[in-house]
Amino acid sequence: MTESSSRGATWLAALTENAAPVAGYPASVRVVDAELADQPCRYIAVLPDESNPYPRARSGEVGLIEGWALAKAVHEAIDADRATQKRTIVAVVDVSSQAYGRREEAFGIHAALAGAAGAYAKARQAGHAVIALIVGKAMSGAFLAHGYQANRIIALNDPGVMVHAMGKAAAARVTMRSVDDLERLAADVAPMAYDIASYATLGLLWRLLDVGSADQPSQADVISVRRTLTSALDDIRSDPTVDLRSRLGGPNRHASSLVREKLLAQW
Amino acid sequence: MTSAAALLARDSFVELDARGRIRALFDGGRFRELIDPFERVTSPWLLRQGVVTQSDDGVVVAKGEIEGQPAVILAIEGAFQGGSLGEVGGAKIAGALELAVQDNERGIPTRALILFETGGVRLQEANLGLAAIAEIHSAIVDLRRHQPVIGIVAGTVGCFGGMSIAAGLCSYLVVTREARLGLNGPQVIEQEAGIAEYDSRDRPFIWSFTGGEQRARTGLVDAFVGDDCQALRDAVIALLVRGRPEVERSDAYDHYLDRLSRYDPVRQVTPEIVRQVYERGEGT
Amino acid sequence: MEKHQFQYTAGAPAAGRAVVGVVGSGDLEVLLEPAPAGLTTVRITTSVDGYGKVWQAQLDRVFKGTTVGPGGPAVALEINDFGATPGVVGMRIAQVFGALGADAGAVS
Description:
- The complex is a heterotrimer.
- Chain B is of the alpha/beta class.
- Chain B has helices spanning about 5-10, 20-25, 85-105, 125-145, 160-170, 185-195, 205-210, 210-215, 230-240, 255-260, 270-280; strands spanning about 30-35, 60-65, 70-75, 110-115, 150-155, 170-175, 225.
- Chain B has two domains: about 10-250, Alpha-Beta Complex (2-enoyl-CoA Hydratase, Chain A, domain 1); about 255-284, no CATH class.
- A seven-stranded mixed β-sheet of chain B has the order 1-2-3-4-5-6-7, with helices on both faces.
- In chain B, α4 (about 125-145) links the parallel β4 and β5 (about 150-155).
- Chain B is globular.
- By secondary structure, chain C is of the alpha+beta class.
- Chain C is built from two helices and five strands, in the order ββββαβα.
- Chain C has a five-stranded mixed β-sheet with strand order 1-4-5-3-2, covered by helices on one side.
- In chain C, a hairpin with a 5-residue loop joins β2 and β3 (about 25-35).
- The radius of gyration of chain C is 13 Å and the shape is globular.
- At the B-C interface, α2 of B face β3 and β5 of C.
């Protein structure tokens, strides 16, 4: 995948009007300080890098360096804004997976992704508004590291937008079913489905947004997304809580609330 | 004591199931289980897929005391569906951690131990497992502000997937030789990257990179103990006494970026190279 | 996946409840709770199809014979099975009744 076809790169450029990235980050992690609703906003995306020194992380996967670099990008925002207005952080999400490789496991990619996830969580808990904008894939460990700690999650309504724990082919192999079987099951089991409309029934998304083109957004598309990001920001600012409880209550997450009620009653 | 006698005198932790492990860790083996099996809060998603459910969905939530201080243990039952997390099991862990945070905000010093015996997300519940794991991550980071959060990876299942990220967020990790801690399961890496990159049937190879001993030697975990209940409990107590670390491992991005900058990825990695880079800070 | 249900004559309600086992490969979970006097009910959910008669025979031996028998405690047993052999089934059933005597709470 070349950089020009990366939705992450496209949307990051569009939302920041091609502002120059912050120095000191690898080519696979683009960090841009710009604005949202006339206020400081750090936009972060993970991008494909054909020249990534790590051969298993060249197609936009979140690998070792990407994980720690995401952590750095978010921590530096937290540290810089400690005594001042806390900038918004927008994770532009188009991540097909974590990196699979010997180097990655050897050096502890699990710890690198924990670095990223932990940083985003800390930012939110410290009062930064964190918004995830899913423009392509949001898969598994990569999404846990980059986007899933956001206060609010927005997804574009597009066939190329997908949230899941494992790609279809790999999931079929691991569960020892055919891809056809998996798709049949997914029709009946909402959390297993791959399409974003089914994901939306889980109650985890704040907004599912129609755009003219997710691959090559028009100016109208960009304005629409910016407006939605601003609404999300307003919603976060008017919410006194900074945890993830807004994700509870969807009809397909009934058990998630029941368990919490019972734990509270028995605590 | 001869080594045979020593082996016999050992009280294996690895062989215990979730409730047995909890019993071994709490003071006097006393605990109170929340949402116990008789409540039958089972997976809403498995039966329709022809999968037999376990009454506790493979996660046990137990409250008790460790050295007289209140604690909650979240124990994953590795024998059920490979310890994979679904909606209910995930909510038990996240919800209990959230309540531990609330306790601390009210002055009750509840600490949390997580027994990681898990392949990560339960694929039959995919997105609900993944979402629950994100909530677990959030709750660990929240609780860490008040108390050290301690994870144990004992084996035989080990800790993989999104829960390995949760382990990476813990303040301290205790492992045994039998344990493995890694992001991706060996079979998935082999499928994605090829057998030359990662041979999922080569057990010594896998343990040489992700086994408890290597993780301990390379500073990715905090205590490496024998498979013995007393040794594990003692290790947990010692870490609780140590208190919250000055810098959480997952916040040490500068340290890890610096160390990784000394490794040239053009060479394939070996266990010795990892020790060289992490243990000794040497370049390759 | 199959479900089976069996009922047996029993005595007074059991004096507690217990749970043993795990739904792991080759294993089973058994939950035991008191039932009203006179009737024991066993409900089985199993991952292996076609073994109804084998379950029947084994449970008949337990509840009609001398292991628990018609004078034994009236229980509601719930079994969640993942392909255990009759040997393992027998072990877990003995274990859950044994746990009744020792400790009235959850036991592993």
